[in-house]
Design goal:
The chain starts with 16 loop residues before the first helix and ends in a 31-residue tail after the last helix. The longest helix has 12 residues, at 35-46. Strands 1, 2, 3, 4, 5, 6, 7, 8, 9, 10, 11 and 12 form a twelve-stranded mixed sheet that branches. It has helices at residues 17-23, 35-46, 59-64, 88-91, 94-104, 126-132, 276-282, and strands spanning 26-28, 109-118, 137-139, 152-160, 173-179, 190-194, 207-210, 215-219, 225-233, 240-244, 249-251, 260-268. By secondary structure, the protein is of the alpha+beta class.
Length: 313
Amino acid sequence: MNFAVKTVAPERTSSSIVGDFITHGRHIFNAPLSASASADLLSMIKSTRFFDHRLFLTEAEFDADPRYTGVNPRKGRNLLDQFDAMLGFVERAPEIVCGVTELLGDDYEILNRKIVCGVPSSAVPAWLKARIEGAPVNNLGAFVRPEYRDVTYFYGIDFHQDLIDFKDRDADFITLYVYLHPVTTRDAPLFILDGSHALGATTFPHDLTPSGPSGWIYRDASGRQADVRQQVLIGDAGLAAVWHACTLHGTQPDASDHERISLRYLFAKRPGGRGGIDAVNARISAPLRLVTTRVDLDADGAAVMKRNFVNQV
């Protein structure tokens, strides 16, 4: 069943980044980062491979040795690390440094950084589309050739929290996302649910019901609920946004004829550090960590659920 939920452009606010996190669980920077630096980095990334069907194993190759874990970028296998000298336009941008410092304190650390690629429909083999249809998280790493697993590839990801990858860790980190080229409604833009962080840490898949144009009702396991508003991040190269580890976000499959390439950073407080995130978390009267972050996978890491909310938009 398809629901007519209106797509809305991202709303930028003039309050402080901490104020935006308290109210919305996210902050969208008013001005994009350097378009020329974004273009230069994008060109270097695209020079390393073809972002088409050649990324993928054949069906026979995959079935001969299916592996669902250990297929994402990691230390020693992360393409972004090869371009460290080009990342100052993000990591040393005054607005990024000031904003992250306000949230996490002076001594914050980069917990993780990587390239994320939304793969266009035309690049996904037919046999693979048949296997992943309807799955809530279409991370394609398991189906990508080993030499290309230094990037995260996806074909739509349902609404989720970034806490999903951090069992037994407090929501003491934030996510920064940067588009390296213009992103329209057809380029797998990010959907963010404003205010969803207020329910704290909840297990994936999440309980969501569409509620009018651009609205959702979000419920946790204890029966509490929040009326949340959908923001769709569309914009120019360099568009940057940060969000709380409990903020729900997702993306539909890339409907354009080209890949969507972006940067994703996770920044965290140092142990014992203090920052605005503490004031944000103090407003959340719900758990901020989980023992079980998701229930959509089997013991081998393969998807066992077929339900996807963001694709109903």
